[in-house]
């Protein structure tokens, strides 16, 4: 693994989850919650990610001037396709890491790139180019790939009984064996269980926040009432400050009362308008 990538805390774990009738690599934090490829707070160090057993593997969020060229489905029946060999030969001197993908049928080329737009090429070749600023992460295997010694590579494909093998059956037009179907069902059930657990956890957190909101609203309404009372007794020079404070409290009450967890009517602003009119009358009288 390149030192530059190991030394930066841009690592995540990932799990396979069904999305739109296919399994997708979803980034995860070490605590099992979703990770974001654009939020550094959800990333971790290489050592921490590697020592975790969560999910299927580790991933690196692109950045630090490093992007990736992803060659999909370029190793068929253990043989590297000519179009992929040409690309690897072109970039291997500049590459920081050339590795086999998790499925065993693709190649990742990590290298320094300039920022810019990503690209997808589907002209008989399956190429995806992700610059450092693309907001993407790549599932990293660390299984280095080298062209030396020929273009025939060892077959390290996932065996039957895994979701990756099920996808391989379908790409080849083969019937999916029962072992692979069972693995897909298990992965789907696990993904749904994780989502249900996250939903329960978020609901519990929302429930814990309701009393805090109610306490804040009660206090703010009390403060607003005191300001309304003070305005009746205020000197002309104090009115502007009190009105401003009242507006701020009303805005905060509206903000806290917007959510469905707390339904509370917002005090009307008619009296504040009346206080403003009184202030203008006093100015005219002076």
Summarize it.
The protein is α+β, with helices and mostly antiparallel strands. Helices cover 43% and strands 20% of the residues. The chain is built from 7 helices and 11 strands.
Count every beta strand, where a strand is a DSSP E run of 2 or more residues: 11
Span of the ends, CA to CA:
79 Å
SSE order in H/E notation?
A: HEEHEEEEHEEEEEHHHH
> Which oligomerization state do the chains in this entry correspond to?
single chain
The SS-based structural class is alpha+beta
Essential attributes:
286 residues; alpha+beta; four-stranded antiparallel sheet; 7 helices
Could you explain how this protein is built, in words?
There is one protein chain. With 286 residues, this protein is of the alpha+beta class. It is built from seven helices and eleven strands. The protein has helices at 3-7, 46-51, 82-91, 163-171, 178-233, 236-256, 270-285; strands at residues 11-19, 22-28, 57-61, 66-71, 75-76, 79-80, 95-100, 107-112, 119-122, 126-130, 137-140. The strands form three sheets. Strands 7-8-4-10-9 form a five-stranded antiparallel β-sheet, covered by helices on one side. A four-stranded antiparallel β-sheet has the order 2-1-3-11. A hairpin with a 2-residue loop joins strand 1 (11-19) and strand 2. Helix 4 (163-171) crosses helix 5 (178-233), helix 5 (178-233) runs antiparallel to helix 6 and helix 6 packs antiparallel against helix 7. It starts with a helix and ends with a helix.
């Amino acid at each position: 693994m390149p030192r530059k990538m190991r030394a930066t805390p841009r690592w995540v774990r990932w799990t396979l989850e069904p999305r739109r009738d296919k399994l997708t690599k979803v980034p995860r934090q070490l605590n099992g919650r979703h990770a974001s490829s654009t939020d550094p707070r959800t990333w971790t160090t290489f050592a921490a990610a590697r020592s975790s057993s969560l999910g299927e593997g580790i991933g690196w969020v692109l950045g630090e001037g490093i992007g990736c060229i992803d060659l999909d489905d370029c190793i068929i029946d253990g043989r590297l396709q000519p179009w992929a060999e040409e690309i690897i030969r072109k970039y291997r001197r500049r590459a920081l890491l050339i590795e086999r993908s998790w499925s065993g049928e693709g190649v990742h080329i990590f290298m320094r790139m300039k920022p810019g737009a990503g690209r997808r090429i589907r002209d008989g070749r399956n190429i995806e180019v992700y610059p450092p600023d693309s907001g993407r992460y790549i599932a990293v295997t660390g299984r280095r790939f080298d062209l030396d010694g020929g273009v025939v590579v060892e077959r390290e494909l996932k065996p039957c009984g895994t979701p990756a093998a099920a996808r391989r059956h379908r790409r080849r037009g083969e019937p999916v064996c029962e072992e692979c179907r069972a693995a897909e069902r298990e992965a789907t059930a696990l993904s749904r269980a994780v989502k249900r657990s996250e939903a329960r956890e978020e609901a519990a957190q929302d429930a814990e926040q309701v009393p805090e909101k109610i306490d804040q609203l009660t206090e703010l309404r009390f403060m607003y009432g005191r300001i309304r009372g003070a305005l009746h007794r205020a000197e002309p020079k104090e009115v502007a400050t009190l009105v401003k404070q009242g507006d701020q409290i009303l805005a905060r009450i509206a903000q806290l009362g917007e959510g469905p967890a707390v339904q509370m009517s917002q005090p009307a602003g008619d009296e504040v308008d009346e206080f403003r009119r009184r202030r203008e009358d006093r100015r005219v009288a002076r």
